[in-house]
Amino acid sequence: GRTLTHVKMNEALSHRCILLTCLATYLGCVAQTLPPDVAQVSTDCGDFKGRHKNGAYSFKGIPYAAPPVGALRWAPPAPPACSSEVTDAGHFRSMCTQVRPLSSTGRLMGQEDCLFINVWTPTLQPGARLPVVVWIHGGYLHMLSGNEPGYSPTEELAADTGVVYVSFNYRLNAFGFLALEVLREGSPRNTSGNYGFLDQIAALQWVQKNIQAFGGDPEKVTIVGHSSGGTSVWTLMTSPLAIGLFHAAVDMSGSSVQNGTLEEVEKINEVFLNKTGCKDAACLRKLSVEKVLQAIPWKEYPYWGADDLLDLPTKGLFIGPVVAVDGYLLEAPPFEVWEKKLNHSDVPFLIGSTQQETDFYPPAENISSWTWDDYRWFVTEKLSTFNETLPDEALRLYPTSDPCPTTDRCPERAYITMTSDIRVSCPLSDVAQRAAAALSSPVYRYVVTHTPSGPVNATDDLLPFPSHFSFHFLDAVTFFGGLEPLLGKTLSSEDQSFWDLFKQNLLSFVKTGKMDAEWREFPEATALLSHNLTVVQSYSPARCDLWKKNGLFEYGWMN
């Protein structure tokens, strides 16, 4: 009896131990289970914990390269250190070092340790293979970041469009683009400068390796850049180093001028070297962040400041190039790359601009109160430096009788339209013409003509002026849902129609590499985008011919 009792007691204890073990295991599993608003993804360099809200997942501040500090300042990006721990990716990390506004007295922002990438996705199923948009922010290659509110992707956009979005920071200003002969030391290619573009290539390589884990398709990547981000897109299109890293490209209001050779740019930048007092790279790498930014030639000619790019040009007056044709990242100036059939990406290409690009920071503080006499005087004063007849020809093509969508600020609109045609829209149509001749892939062109329902609320960083027309940024901020906050009021029906139309067409291009049949390839058609879509053969051909004939395309936006 005692033996049987012992056996039963042992069996009971055994069952109890099994139950306790199972319970402990279960509780351990529960403890390790992520909360419903947290998600985890494995990359080629560690595991990252993101967030889920508003119908999509976000992973913010993932390092895609090592911090470019110390010996890595002014060096190509190096691989990041990988962690064996799960890294939190719930918050944005530092923007790259910059000053706002662009001047020697601007406010210092950001850090050198800034090479981080962000992902927004509606699904984490690796087999989903959704289209991917890689957003390259603008800011004249000097400022801003991949997470500017209203000017970068969001969870809502990813959920609404069924697309994976990526943004990232890249080195800016002198930290990203300083070309100097002394910085060639240790360079395996005997080059200097363009470090920010090399960062962009490293970010695209990260996307190729990892985006499938975030539900994206590495074979359906579209790069989309605005302003200097558009300049970056064109650079990547014509760089042999970026071939195979993307499959379609969108250039919104990028630069049309990239001609400075490495030697020319290095020579121009000697003013930077002289201001630092340094003689070699070792000295430069020891400089404080403040001293580097103060040595930038914001006002010394040919300056890095952008003021002159926002007005009608003065003959012979140019800003200093930041981008260098170095024979490595860029084998030749972009037009020459196409003409000589050098190595480049042949992918569908969409080129866009807005009708009043320079309205975001116009040249005269009182321009909003100009009379038509003021308009005629300024046009004559600026353009007579080219030849005596040019002002009259220009005023004939941009007459005071032109239709104006508002009851005020019409002289401002006429002047800004003329400036924008010279600096951006006409030169970009020339880029599209050359692209269509060089690429076997389709090329498309658009010009935004929409006038928002009111002036924007001026901000210090993005829009420092109460812009009222088709200003620089209008296409980008509208796509990202940032127009309503800028207006400070509910969108009008026409604002909403423009947003819907722009989003629909951009997503069509992202998903298929093509536009609807109505929007034909360039040079057969240019789309004018407002609350509706109008197709014309070309944008303002007589006006663009005038500027081209008089050599003003070389005064297009640089950088």
TrEMBL record:
Signal sequence coordinates: 1-31
EC number, as in UniProt: 3.1.1.-
Pfam families to which the protein is assigned, alphabetical: COesterase (PF00135)
Residue ranges of domain Carboxylesterase type B in the record: 39-547
Enzyme class: hydrolase
Record family assignment: Belongs to the type-B carboxylesterase/lipase family.
Protein name as annotated: Carboxylic ester hydrolase
Source species of the chain: Salarias fasciatus
